[in-house]
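call fold(seq) -> tokens
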Amino acid sequence: MAEHGVCPWWVGYLLASPIRKFWQDPVRVLEPYIRPGMTVLEPGPGMGFFTLEIARLVGPSGRAVAVDVQPRMIEALKRRARKAGLSDRIDARVCGPESMGLAGLDRSVDFVFACAMVHELPSAATFFAEAAQAMKSGAALLLAEPAGHVGETEFAEEIKAAAGAGLSLAERPVIKRCTAALLRKS
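ret:
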């Protein structure tokens, strides 16, 4: 797997910009997969561009769990969640670089949204194993990597690592500026 490194925290301001909705609308990307009452895991949420929409889609009875290695990203996400009135639905956690720290989530997650982050990790296999452990049977994981930044060969390696964790390819959805795959846990 190619070594890309973690996105600098200050880039989070650009990624959370409302202008991004013109080419990557969070509602359009997430709505087909998320329902009220679900528990959704979002690793690498940055400052919450997708997280806030996840919280809206899961509704008051649902929960969004956002984990990031960068405390500044999580603090900005928490500020944005408070301002949007969604703090009660978002569990925002700082995790270490080697583990997402998902204690208490075993087999409770309905959907995982892994957008533009697996390529930054030291081990895709470890990530997918942790995600699969947190997922319910039949749950889905939407993997989306930035096109042009993550090549088809590297993306295929990620899919192979996911398969090693018991996640099978269900479909290849189209997400602007991304290479994407919907994976299911059997």
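The chain has a mean pLDDT of 90.
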